[in-house]
Design goal:
Elements (H helix, E strand, L loop, with lengths): L7 E4 L1 H7 L7 H12 L5 E6 L12 H7 L7 E5 L3 H9 L4 E7 L2 H8 L3 H17 L3 E7 L12 H14 L3 E6 L6 H12 L7 E5 L6 H10 L4 E4 L19 H10 L8 H12 L9 H13 L1
Parallel strand pairs: 1-2, 1-8, 2-3, 3-4, 4-5, 5-6, 6-7, 7-8
This protein binds coenzyme A and zinc ion.
């Protein structure tokens, strides 16, 4: 398997990033942030969630935000839906792409969505069926695929089983997440060939967190197996709820820097992503964690 020449990035800052920040960003600031990201050439942006506002108060304004963003042609704006109620709300707000989300470990699934994995697959079966009947595109997320904050090691067979189930339910793409940033490249080497036996690799995305500094090493390993879709967050937005103070999602700037340096195309302009990170940083109570972002800021400050 050769390294892909082109990679698709799913930008998760506005959802995964903002929901893990400890300040709630005003709706108009979210809208401007998403609009800035839309100008960068990204093909996919996870815009918000239609979940219970009690579960995720940071995204309680999802309908208002989703309606107000400028929908740029060629960009897919994905919203998370945990149940049929979420799907209905997403549809009312005008969404055409949704994501359902479960996990590879029971305790995390229970705490995140108050369901067992099997229950979640039953609920999502209905959500995916309805969504597809209405012409929507569907992404499936599997959290804790490389380790669980409550259960520790997660067996590969469990990840494969949940991936197969989501694929059979009709997901167009499945994003496999290292929710707590514990994964290492040998885990990627073991997982991807196993997944490729039952799900086409061009439907698989990987979602790494950089909590322990292994995210890019994991991306590099996945590239060697032909994976060509990665999730990341502008500025590295979103801390880790299980390790307060630690960094969360892989920064989009870091991913772009490495991919472009390896002469892998993304169609995304790093300068535009950096501008979006700079903008949103003004609404947060800490600096972005993306190393490339920080290096660029430092070098422009020293030459200014
Ligand atoms: N949108 C808005 N509100 C919703 C909703 C949705 N999609 N689904 C449920 N609710 C409301 C219910 O009306 C109820 O409100 P009430 O207490 O005022 O009556 C409340 O949320 C609880 O609903 P219930 O059906 O009893 O579900 P629950 O308490 O078992 O919670 C989820 C299940 C899935 C709704 C909730 O855990 C959730 O939204 N989780 C999302 C977590 C998340 O986004 N994690 C990050 C992604 S990895
Ligand atoms: Zn994440």
């Amino acid at each position: 398997m050769s390294t892909p020449q082109r990679v698709k990035i799913c930008e998760v800052g506005p959802r995964d990033g903002l929901q893990n920040e400890n300040v709630t960003v005003p709706a108009d600031v979210k809208v401007r942030y998403i609009d800035l990201l839309s100008e960068s050439g990204l093909q996919m942006i996870e815009a918000t969630s239609f979940v219970s506002p009690k579960a995720i108060p940071q995204l309680a304004d999802s309908a208002e935000v989703f309606r107000a963003i400028q929908k740029r042609p060629g960009v897919r704006y994905v919203v998370l839906c945990p149940n049929l109620r979420g799907l209905e709300r997403a549809r009312e707000a005008g969404a055409d792409s949704i994501a359902v989300f479960t996990a590879a470990s029971e305790t995390f699934t229970k705490r995140n969505i108050n369901m067992t994995i099997d229950e979640s697959l039953r609920v999502f079966g209905k959500v995916i069926h309805e969504a597809r009947a209405g012409g929507m595109w569907v992404r499936g997320y599997i959290s804790t695929a490389f380790g669980c904050p409550y259960e520790g090691v997660v067996p590969i067979e469990r990840v494969v089983q949940v991936t197969n189930a989501l694929f059979e339910l009709g997901c167009d793409e499945i994003s496999i997440g290292d929710t707590i940033g514990v994964g290492v490249p040998t885990q990627v080497d073991a997982l991807i060939p196993r997944l490729a036996q039952s799900v086409p690799l061009d439907r698989i995305a990987l979602h790494f967190h950089d909590t322990r500094g292994t995210a890019l090493a994991n991306v590099h390993a996945a590239l060697q197996h032909g994976v060509a879709i990665f999730d990341s967050s502008a500025g590295g937005l979103g801390g880790c709820p299980y390790a307060p103070g630690a960094s969360g999602n892989l920064g989009t700037e870091d991913l772009l820097y490495m991919l472009h340096g390896m002469e892998i195309e993304t169609g995304v302009d790093l300068a535009n992503v950096r501008a979006a990170s700079r903008f949103i940083a003004g609404a947060l109570n800490h600096a972005p964690t993306s190393k490339t972002f920080l290096a660029l800021e430092a070098s422009s400050a020293s030459t200014a």
